[in-house]
Design brief:
With 294 residues, this protein is mostly helical. It is built from 13 helices and no strands.
Length: 294
Amino acid sequence: MATPAHWIAGARLRTLPAAVAPVLAGTAIAAYDDSLVWFKAVLALVVSLALQVGVNYANDYSDGIRGTDDERVGPLRLVGSGLVSPAAVKRAAFASFGVAGVAGLVLAATTAWWLLAVGVLCVLAAWFYTGGSKPYGYLGLGEVMVFVFFGLVAVVGTTYVQTEAWGTAGWASLAAGCGIGALACAILVANNLRDIPTDLVAGKRTLAVRLGDAATRRFFVALIGVAVVGVVVVALLTTPWALFGLFFWLPARGAVRTVLRGAEGPALIPVLQSVGVAELLWAALTGFGLVVGR
């Protein structure tokens, strides 16, 4: 029987920096604009975390019933390992989406009702990544959707619900969304690079499978470069203090070296953690610079 530790493992806590970082960055931009609203920032964080956990359980369920996780290199999967029934994992996914929905409803009620449509799109994107008859994650579109929803939508949305306007803050949040989205994509690229052999067998045509090993490694490095440019653009739009965000390179450089040296299989697992830390640092240090430079 599955234990609480198994369910926690299934929630994939190492992926949660990808949910915290965009809210942190978006809130810092709102603070720079003198528009910080704490309760909305907290609600945005609840939405982001719940969606991340929900998509993790949804992926576990969908990949598990397809047999994609039968021969895994990475961490434990609840359905693939046989520890938990698919139905139970599916319920956990929808419970997480429900939490995100409640928090999102409050945000929409206190900001603008059209945000409900954005929330629905987020949930649909989370489910159909690996769910449904034609999951877009199996068609090589996972990175695009991660960039859009865990980058642009998450950062710009967090800023907007607090400022309720566009202006300089809007453009800065767009640049930050590109930087955060690139790092979120880099995590997925490293994950899919690791899984190329098993995904080929399972018929999962991720972007890494389509590009091939060498091109995927170059794409990973390019995404780190986009994150660097994102910090610079935010600094140009706001304050030079935002350049503190460039220190995200400290953990990222080890990940880049590992990928470029041709690491495979389990040797790529630390890359996921390093890029997750780098993404969190990008948001925290850029945000620190924005607050200091107000």
